[in-house]
Amino acid sequence: MTWQDNYQVWKNYQDLDPALAQELADMADDQEALENAFTKPMAFGTAGMRGLIGPGIGQMNLYTVGAAAEGLARFMDTLDDKDKQRGVAISFDSRYQSREFAHHSAQVLGAHGIPSFVFDDIRPTPELSFAVRHLHTYAGIMITASHNPKQYNGFKIYGPDGGQMPPKAADQITEYVNGIDNMFTVKTVKETTLRKQNLVHIIGEDVDEDYLAGVKAVSVNPKLIDEVGKDMTLIYTPLHGTGHIIGYRALKDAGYDHFTMVKEQAIADPEFPTVTHPNPEFPEAFNMAIELGKKQGADLLVATDPDADRLGAAVRMPNGEYQLMTGNQIASVLLNYILKAKQDAGKLPADGMVVKSIVSTELATKIADHYGVKMVNVLTGFKYIAEQIKLAEQNHDHTFLFGFEESFGYLINPFVRDKDAIQSTILLAEVAADYKQQGLTLYDGIQQLYKTYGYFKEKTTAKEFDGVDGADKMAAIMKSLRDSKPTEFAGVKVETTDDYQTQVATHQDGSTEKLDLPVSNVLKYWLADGTWIAVRPSGTEPKIKFYIGTNGKTDEEATQKLTDFENALTQWVKD
């Protein structure tokens, strides 16, 4: 069907939700908007789906969400009754229609006789992961678009272990979703009826208390908080998201008495009125926290994104200004603190394991090697880190100590199986307290790591491809890279090219070897000077991401190399 055919189906549907009907009418003269909304169905994959909110088969609305929930329900219909009756935990963030999408999902599941456990209000993604494990549900649904702008929302599915649904099951769910001929025919049952049938349960404080108990336990040295942390000045901003409910309580429970929330950003507002991007990766997200931090002389500024799975931080410099930490820097100081503290206490396990994505800093590998801990590299996506935790538990061969992605996602204790900004906030504050006790700041701590292991610099850039032909343009760029087989960047030779789509590593001399990670549309180049460059299309946004990781004997050398490689990569994309 053409986009015009799809548009007419929606336009002619008599029972269309009134709000969507009005939006559809408002779009009538905007052909570009209509094409984007009706040309292609929303892509549903292993990470669920994410997109603009609005009418049409290609946007987030009650009907596309209903189809996603129906796909999960049909999958659960194939399970034995015991697993099916374990039900689904459902949470949602502060975005437009998140609550409606969550309860609509429960109504779809209820039509299949599947119980739902729905949070009474917004809760973070990591708490949803915890709830799946804590309540022993078979699956979880998180309604969120994470750090995307206000126009977006999304639908993520979690599996029985609290991690994102495993690939095999996710593929089956995708087939069921794609097999729905008419999303308007997806059945729902009124929630009042489902409540009477015990098919919808409202959860909240009962889960909060147990989740917060787990968060409190991430502290490596509680005495340090009593001695130093309680007097340390912190600024926390939840960026209008779910963190304000749990983050505040977690900091209080841990013993950080002198922290202040950025009150304007502690309001759960789907407009995200104080920021253009509610993303702690963006410097402007810290503008208000920095202003407040300067007034109070704060030791540390932290920010969580709207679903509180990502954590950003800013450290006070010697001149009193604040500098944002990169995700790799945060991960490195957390990892170093965990391993050193465990070693000092005689509790560092001989089978310790750290897990990171292939596009994250090699500084962490140096730190892990120093402490004799195994570093496991996985594809981008926290589900792969969760998978390694599950394998280690099943095989009894490794003890998980830390996991992270450079995109501001970290996990300390695996009672959660996704990145957890609440856990990370508590431990990063403890790291800051540790340095404060030594008369140092987190900035000093980062410099110490560089002096010990070398100056590592990383940068991630992205090129966006909006519109209906965006996916084709991204595919063309990836094909061009594979066809051209670059032999150098910025004059530095490529020694090995890892192609995770073919699962083959090709060396400069033409020899090859098998890559043992799953198939993925990712290219990674290892250069002669120790630099690496990776290219991958985003799994959740219409963009291609370019990653550079380099190092040098001095900060200046590493910075210059990073600039040179970034310029070379920018020129290549233009060409």
TrEMBL record:
GO terms for biological process: glucose metabolic process; purine ribonucleoside salvage. Keywords: Carbohydrate metabolism, Glucose metabolism, Isomerase, Magnesium, Metal-binding, Phosphoprotein. Its cofactor is Mg(2+). PROSITE patterns: PGM_PMM. Residues 42-181, 227-314, 327-453 form the Alpha-D-phosphohexomutase alpha/beta/alpha domain. One of its GO terms (molecular function) is phosphopentomutase activity. Residues 501-557 form the Alpha-D-phosphohexomutase C-terminal domain. SUPFAM superfamilies: Phosphoglucomutase, C-terminal domain (SSF55957), Phosphoglucomutase, first 3 domains (SSF53738). Pathway: Lipid metabolism; Glycolipid metabolism; diglucosyl-diacylglycerol biosynthesis. It catalyses: alpha-D-glucose 1-phosphate = alpha-D-glucose 6-phosphate. InterPro entries: A-D-PHexomutase_a/b/a-I (IPR005844), A-D-PHexomutase_a/b/a-I/II/III (IPR016055), A-D-PHexomutase_a/b/a-II (IPR005845), A-D-PHexomutase_a/b/a-III (IPR005846), A-D-PHexomutase_C (IPR005843), A-D-PHexomutase_C_sf (IPR036900), A-D-PHexomutase_CS (IPR016066), Alpha-D-phosphohexomutase_SF (IPR005841). Its EC number is 5.4.2.2. Belongs to the phosphohexose mutase family. This is Phosphoglucomutase.
